[in-house]
């Protein structure tokens, strides 16, 4: 996985609450068997009209927001379906950090597996940051120090330390877990003895 | 120390715990469908990894499959490729597959319980948010992303942090005409779509106890719409009865051992929940959603709410946007809302009991001339059972289309979709913008309410049918 490094960007702002994964990437794009190429379909129904023509007034279609690497959004971002196509689409579009006052659980986890940093922070700060979006000014994300820097202000954010480490070092989860293979072996032995009905060798 | 049901299952599955609380937990059962798995199998291939315990995974194509005649295969190239990819992956990695023309094929969350693959006290995952359904059996069941699917395939474990405990008690009993779907809509309407974030919910109380297994599945199914990681219900005699004799349920001596263990699966009497919510069964009415979030619920006797009365600015904006999308005016009587389409099916309400209840109400009646209606049984076995009971005939005689099993118009990945501005009374679980087709308008309802709307052509109180 790509390592997460510091980010500086003019953020895009979607004030809408409860942005669900159906909005982030609608079903017709879930038919792919690849992880790549979804960026052009990100927020498809907001970005294009019924005839597939680009809607010039949608924020992500406008310069400089079409190059944003940071997305600010209303609360409960990423709710709904577990589709990892949502972070794949965001990442393919170029967005590496989403800031909201709350995230849906599965989406939140999926971000980390794809080099995207979801930042949970007070609603008031999201609103403050949105001013930078409107004024087309950059803000900076420093994962190491867990800080968002804007103007002469700094806001600290919380993040799980293990997740932070994986993101910063671009670690492969599966390799990490396979390091614990002897523990998994032992666990399976225990199941076989204590819960024989769970093995499916019927 | 006294423990909640969730605590017990969690501890039972702990393979390893880091100092920072990050855990590796064991996965007993893994379900796979065609949409969220191709990239996971591809990842294994790229890294030269195997599936650790292929026999603990069960696969089925459900999202993309056509619900009309399947003998000619799938027309849509991408859908066909996805289903073929699943078939090839299962073959290559040794995973059992219920293929398109297998009569056991169906929606992934319907076939698990139907086969006895779903069992109490287990950890069950699937690359699908409605995995929560299986929690009805007292299993810890939740949706995961595709990277996690790959992780489970490779290691039979998952990296997780423990959630908090939330108990929702639904007390007393339910008025006539009120069903499990109304109960879960009421819960979501009460705590909101983010109300369960960070929690595993245990559903308890007399109402929950009185529900059948199928109704319990309807409740747990929509836990995700309340934002929780998982929802569960302590197993009891009904659970054991349901599982007894199912194809993949334990047999003989193993059944006895399993049963003995399953009986220990409950929250201890004096255990502490991080949060508790109480809801009185008698206060629940037949509900419908008016907006584009599952929390936007109203009793069928109510009116479309007015954003002008909303104090929170963001919420007001969200409501206005919803109403515009839904083509509704504030203060319209809910029962005046005209319907174009009826969809009965999905992992929320596509089981045999749902179809029985619906057919009972429909018997001898016809659907209104302004609606078109379809029933999509949740699985091939549900369909077969319904046909045995003559339920298909009741539907067809009334003017419904009787389809092949799958997800169908719950999300419209196959040709079953709403057209822009078409309005649907649907027994599915999500009313998001565009969910059932671009511009389509979804009202979530129970199967009974879907039938009432089908007969009258507008949203209608099922108690008046
Ligand atoms: S029926 Fe709907 S909610 Fe259930 S698995 Fe299929 S698409 Fe998902």
Top-tier CATH class of the largest domain in chain A = Alpha Beta
Structural class of chain A: alpha/beta
Total count of helical runs of at least 4 residues of chain A: 8
* Stretches with pLDDT under 50, minimum 5 residues of chain A: none
Query: Biggest sheet of chain B, in brief?
Result: 5 strands, parallel
Mean pLDDT of chain B: 97
In the CATH hierarchy, the architecture of the largest domain in chain A is Alpha-Beta Barrel
Most extensive interface between two protein chains, with residue counts: A-B, 59 and 78 residues
- N-to-C CA distance of chain A: 39 Å
- Tell me the domain tally of chain A: 2
Describe this structure in words.
The complex is a heterodimer of chains A (202) and B (465). In chain A, 33% of the residues lie in helices and 15% in strands. Chain A has 8 helices and 8 strands, in the order E-E-H-H-E-H-E-H-E-H-E-E-E-H-H-H. In chain A, the strands form 2 sheets. A 4-stranded antiparallel beta sheet of chain A has the order 1-6-7-8, covered by helices on one side. A 4-stranded parallel beta sheet of chain A has the order 2-3-4-5. The model of chain A has no long low-confidence stretch (mean pLDDT 95). In chain B, helix 2 (38-46) packs across helix 5 (146-155) and helix 13 (352-362) packs parallel to helix 16. Chain B has 465 residues and is α/β, with parallel strands linked by helices. In chain B, the strands form 5 sheets. Chain B has a 5-stranded parallel beta sheet with strand order 5-4-3-6-7, sandwiched between helices. A 5-stranded parallel beta sheet of chain B has the order 17-16-15-18-19. Chain B has a 4-stranded parallel beta sheet with strand order 11-10-9-12. The interface between A and B is large, with 59 and 78 residues. The complex binds iron/sulfur cluster. Iron/sulfur cluster is lined by residues 62-63, 107-109, 128, 130, 346-347, 407, 410-411, 428-429 of chain B.
């Amino acid at each position: 996985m790509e390592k997460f490094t510091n980010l500086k960007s003019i953020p895009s702002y979607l004030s809408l609450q409860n942005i669900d994964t159906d909005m982030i990437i609608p079903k017709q794009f879930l038919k792919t068997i690849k992880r790549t190429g979804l960026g052009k379909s990100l927020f498809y129904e907001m970005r294009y009209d019924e005839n597939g023509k680009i809607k010039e007034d949608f924020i992500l279609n406008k310069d400089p927001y079409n190059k944003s690497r940071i997305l600010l959004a209303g609360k409960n971002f990423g709710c709904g379906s577990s589709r990892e196509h949502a972070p794949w689409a965001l990442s393919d579009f170029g967005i590496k950090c989403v800031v909201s006052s709350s995230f849906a659980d599965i989406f939140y986890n999926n971000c980390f597996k794809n080099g995207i940093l979801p930042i949970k922070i007070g609603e008031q700060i999201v609103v403050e940051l949105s001013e930078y979006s409107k004024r087309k000014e950059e803000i900076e994300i420093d994962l190491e120090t867990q800080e968002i820097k804007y103007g002469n202000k700094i806001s600290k954010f919380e993040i799980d330390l293990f997740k932070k480490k994986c993101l910063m070092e671009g670690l492969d989860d599966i390799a990490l877990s396979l390091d614990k293979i002897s523990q998994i072996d032992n666990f399976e032995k225990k199941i076989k003895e204590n819960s024989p009905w769970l093995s499916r060798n019927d | 120390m006294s423990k909640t049901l969730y605590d017990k299952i969690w501890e039972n599955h702990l393979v390893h715990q880091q100092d920072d609380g990050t855990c590796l937990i064991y996965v007993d059962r893994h379900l796979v469908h065609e949409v969220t798995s191709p990239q996971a199998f591809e990842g294994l291939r790229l890294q030269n990894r195997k599936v650790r315990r292929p026999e603990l995974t069960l696969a089925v194509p459900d999202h993309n499959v056509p619900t009309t005649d399947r003998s000619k295969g799938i027309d849509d190239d991408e859908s066909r490729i996805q289903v073929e990819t699943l078939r090839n992956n299962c073959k290559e990695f040794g995973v059992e597959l219920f293929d398109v023309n297998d009569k056991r094929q169906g929606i992934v969350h319907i076939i698990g319980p139907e086969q006895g693959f779903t069992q109490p006290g287990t950890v069950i995952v699937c690359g699908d948010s409605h995995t929560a359904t299986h929690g009805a059996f007292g299993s810890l069941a939740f949706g995961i992303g595709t990277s996690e699917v790959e992780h489970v395939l490779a290691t039979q474990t998952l990296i997780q942090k423990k959630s908090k405990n939330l108990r929702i008690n639904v007390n007393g009993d339910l008025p006539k005409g009120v069903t499990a779907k109304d109960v879960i809509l009421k819960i979501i309407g009460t705590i909101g779509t983010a109300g369960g974030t960070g929690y595993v919910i245990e559903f308890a109380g007399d109402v929950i106890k009185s529900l059948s297994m199928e109704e319990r599945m309807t409740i747990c199914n929509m836990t995700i719409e309340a934002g929780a990681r998982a929802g569960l219900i302590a197993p009891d005699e009904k659970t054991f009865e349901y599982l007894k004799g199912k194809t993949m349920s334990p047999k003989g001596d193993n059944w006895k051992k399993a049963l003995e263990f399953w009986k220990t699966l409950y929250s201890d009497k004096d255990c502490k929940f991080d949060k508790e919510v109480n809801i009185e069964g008698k206060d629940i009415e037949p509900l419908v959603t008016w907006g584009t979030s599952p929390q936007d619920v109203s009793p069928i006797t109510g009116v479309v709410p007015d954003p002008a009365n909303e104090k929170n600015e963001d919420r007001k904006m969200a409501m206005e946007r919803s109403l515009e999308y839904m083509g509704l005016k504030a203060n319209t009587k809910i029962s005046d809302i005209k319907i174009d389409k009826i969809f009965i099916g999905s992992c929320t309400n596509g089981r045999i009991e749902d179809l029985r209840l619906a057919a009972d109400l429909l018997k001898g009646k016809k659907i209104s001339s302004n609606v078109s209606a379809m029933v999509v049984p949740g699985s091939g076995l549900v369909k077969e059972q319904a046909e045995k009971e003559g339920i298909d005939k009741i539907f067809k005689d009334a003017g419904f289309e009787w389809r092949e099993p799958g997800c169908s118009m719950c999300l419209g990945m196959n040709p079953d979709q709403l057209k822009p501005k078409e309005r649907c009374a649907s027994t599915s679980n999500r009313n998001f913008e565009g969910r059932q087709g671009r511009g389509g308008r979804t009202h979530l309802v129970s199967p009974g309410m879907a039938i009432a709307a089908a007969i009258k052509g507008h949203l209608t109180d099922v108690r008046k049918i």
